[in-house]
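Long-time lurker. I teach an intro course on protein structure, and each term I like to show students one example going from raw sequence to a predicted 3D structure in token notation. This year I'd like something fresh instead of my usual example. Would anyone be willing to generate the tokens for the chain below so I can use it in lecture? Attribution to the forum is fine with me.
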Amino acid sequence: MRRHSSRQQRTILRPVEVSGPGILSGKSIRARFVAAPPSSGVVFVRSDLPGKPRLQAHVSGVSGTARRTTLGRHPVQVTLVEHVLAALAGLRIDNCIVELSGPEPPGLDGSSQEFVCALLSAGVKNQAATRSIWCVDEPVTVQAKGATLTLHPPQQPGLVLTYFLDYGPLSPIIRQVHTQNLLPSTFANDLASCRTFVLEEEAAELRRQGLGLHLKPMDLLVFGSRGPIENCLRFGNEPARHKVLDMVGDLSLLGSDLCGHLVAFRSGHPLNIELCRVLHERLVATLSRLAA
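-- Reply from a regular --
Happy to contribute to a lecture. Here you go:
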């Protein structure tokens, strides 16, 4: 990897809170966002646990990627972090403390919209330190079970993300694609409101596991044989857009900005985190060479 450019680090101006039931637990949870010093990154604080343990939002702390991204290990753990991380990364808020009164952020409607609205209401300010933006000179690909995720060298400034969604010809979710040039404005307008989604049989399996028992189909995007159940799409390709949102959140765990074109085909959290780990290893190697 090589350093492409840099920008000013950013944090929020004042604390702000978002509350609501967790998607998995159904428990009422409060998320409080607080400004953090330069180069401290995003830190989750479990304010409900003794000693208020802290979890750095970094790929090295990822402990699970099954249908969601989890940091830490029980009992000091935070799961389903991708929607909060996407809101912060999408708005280019680099340094922030996220105090949680439970093991997951508020679920809201399964999107990042309310987090984005709260963070924008808090205000964003530049900090004295800079944040490096990194790129690759050759494509870097991770793949598994027919899914692929590739970071291509940049053809223009910034990060562009493309997701090809294909659940097969018999799926109620049609094949679709979304490409996004990532800026704070485009994230807020084009991605933040896009909700997580499941197939009807997947929702039934989660309920059998005792998860999301409080949810109704209208609370999230649940696809039955004829499309969304008791719900309407916000965009014709909302599922593909949400996959891009997840990519933004998961790849922020690298702790550095990326420049280039990120192209995904049928991938999810496991490949997002795998690519993040590969890039982190390369970044560490590059920094070691520069320091030698």
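Some talking points for your students: Residues 269-291 form the longest helix (23 residues). The chain is about 25% helix and 35% strand.
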